[in-house]
C-alpha cells in the first residue's frame, strides 16, 4: 500500500525580513572593512571612490568650520561647537550604517561619500583632543576632563539612537517584498544610489560648500583653505585605514586609532606654534600666510583625517559582535591616546 504524505500547505503570505542586525553582520569599521571581499577590491572596481570621499570630506569639513566660526568657544569655556558636531555626526553615522548594511551593493558609493567623507569630515577627533589639552594647559583642568568624558558618554549613545530610530522607522513602514510602488521604496529605505547620482551631488556640494560657509558665517577666504585640506585629509584617512588593516587580521580598529593619533599630534604641534610664536608667526611664516596654513593643516587636513563618528560606531559594533571587553577598552584608550598624542604635539611645537 502506497502512503502519500501530505505536503504542508505553503503560506501565501510574504515574509518581512527582520531588520535587526546579527552579531556578525555588522562591520566594525564603517570606513572600510577588508574582511568584506567587495570592499577589499573597491579601489580597483570603483575608480570614483577616492574623489567621492574627498568631495564628502570637503562638504563635512566646511560645515564643521562654519559652525566653529559661528559658535566660537569662550576663553577657558566648554567647546560646545565641537561637542555638538561630534555627537550629531555620531547620531547620523548610526542611522547611515543601517541603510548601508541593509542596502548592500545597491548603494556602492553611499558609504564612501556620506560615511567616510561627509561625516568623517564633519566630526573630528584631533580638535577634540587638542581642545582638551589646551584647556588643561590654561588651568581649566576640570572643564577638560568634563569635555573628554561628556563627549564619550554622549557620542556612543548617539550612535545607538541613530541606529534604533532608523530601524524603528523602517519597521513602521515595512511592507512585504514585491508590493512595488511607494511601499517598496520605503521598504528599501532609500532609492538606488549609484555613481550616476552621487557624483553630481558631490561635485555640486564641493562647488558650493566653501562659498556658502564663507558668506554666511564670516569665514571668508579661510573656508577655501579648509576645503583644500579636507581634499587631502578624508582620502588620507581611508587609505591609511586600509594600509593598517592589511597588516593585521583582527576586528580591533587599529587603523582609526592610528589616524586619530597622527592627526591629534600634528594639530597639537600647529596649535602650540600658534600659541607660543609671535603673533601669526606659525613656523616663522608671515601673519596672513600662517593663518591660511593653520586652516589648511589644522581645520581642513587634521580635522578630516581624524573622526569621532567612525570611532563611536566602532565602539558600538565591537559590543554587538560580543567583544564587550574590547569595546570598553577602545572607548577608554581612544580619548587617552589622542590626548597623549596632542600633548606630544604641543611639546614638539614649543621646542
Q: Care to describe what's here?
A:
The chain has 351 residues and is an all-alpha fold. The chain has one domain. It is built from 14 helices and no strands. Helix 3 crosses helix 10 and helix 11 (254-276) runs antiparallel to helix 12 (287-305). The model is unreliable at 1-23 and 189-196 (pLDDT under 50).
Query: Class by helix and strand content?
Result: mainly alpha
Q: What are the segments in which pLDDT stays under 50 over at least 5 consecutive residues?
A: 1-23, 189-196
Tertiary shape: globular
When the domains are counted, the total is 1
| N-C termini distance | 97 Å
Order of helices and strands: HHHHHHHHHHHHHH
What is the residue-averaged pLDDT? 82
What is the strand tally?
0
Largest sheet: none
Residues in helices, as a percent range: over 70%
Global Rg: 22 Å
Strand content: under 5%
Oligomer: single chain
Note the total helix count.
14
